[in-house]
Amino acid sequence: MDWLQFISSIVQSIVSLAWPAAFVTAVWLFREKLTSLLPLLRFKYKDLDVSFRLDQAEKEASQLKLLPPNEESRPTPEEADKFQELVTISPASAIIERYRELEDALKGFASTVGLPAEDMRQTMLGLTRQLRRHELIDQATSALLDDLRSVRNAAAHGQRDEITARDAIRFGELAGRLIAQINLATDAAAIKVTHNLPTH
Predict the structure, then answer these.
(1) CA–CA separation, 76 and 181 (whole Å)
(2) Which residue in 8, 96, 124, 142 has a CA-CA distance of 20 to 30 Å to 157?
């Protein structure tokens, strides 16, 4: 090996080490940003990670300071047993059923506050947007509804087998507390309507 070949092999070695060194340096420099992005890596390609969405929903629910269920809003033992039985048989079906109850509660609220009939016929996403646009719900409630809708969509379309009983129970607790809150808001709006007071 002459000196030109020797220098060439050294240059090639340096070049081959440059990319790994640059990668390690970049990771070290951006370690704080990467740490904050790591939870997003739990998403599956073209799939919704139900657990991640439920984590987000729980964070949003904590910002809302949802009231604990009172005696009137608590499910009856029969209702609780029915939900638990459905969780055991099919967690995805339990989520879909609880979401239907949430949808009914939200539509009842929208009707009570006088949302136009054309808005009432929209999907839950459209209804949520209209309520937000009219400032009848706040940003945190809208975000929570979006997360619960995404979990329900995952349960209804394509991820039924991946949803666990624990996912369904978490969803049921969040949706149940939100239903209770919406029902309280509906009752308050109904009183205002009865006494000709503004509902906003």
Answers:
(1) 17
(2) 142
